[in-house]
Amino acid sequence: MCNPKIRAEALRDSHGATAHNQWLAAEITDSLEDSRPSVPHDEVMARMGTRTLHRNAGAACDFWGIVKEP
């Protein structure tokens, strides 16, 4: 006979996995339907490198590494 606590935990895990899979499927669908042009990986990495350098230097910058004026 299965321990009720173990069974309840397995059921919660199953529901959590189902919810996660539904969320992930929606994210993938949204991404595939996005009409904006994609950004090449190398460009994203270069922008992130710039952003990291500015952040480490103490400058405030936006997502793309553009320094914000105080």
Summarize the structure.
This protein is mainly alpha-helical and 70 residues long.
Could you characterize the architecture of this molecule?
- The protein has 70 residues and is an all-alpha fold.
- It is 66% helix and 0% strand.
- The chain is built from two helices and no strands.
- It has helices spanning 4-33, 41-56.
- The longest helix has 30 residues, at 4-33.
- The relative contact order is 0.07.
Please supply descriptive tags for the structure shown above.
70 residues; 2 helices; 66% helix; elongated
Query: What number is the mean pLDDT?
Result: 80
Please summarize the sheet with the most strands.
none
SSE topology string: HH
Multimeric status of the protein: single chain
Query: Residue share in helices?
Result: 55-70%
Report the radius of gyration as a whole number of Å: 21 Å
- Runs with pLDDT <50, length 5+? none
Total number of beta strands: 0
Q: End-to-end span in angstroms?
A: 66 Å
Structural class from helices and strands? Answer: mainly alpha
Describe the secondary structure blueprint for this structure.
Elements: H1 4-33, H2 41-56
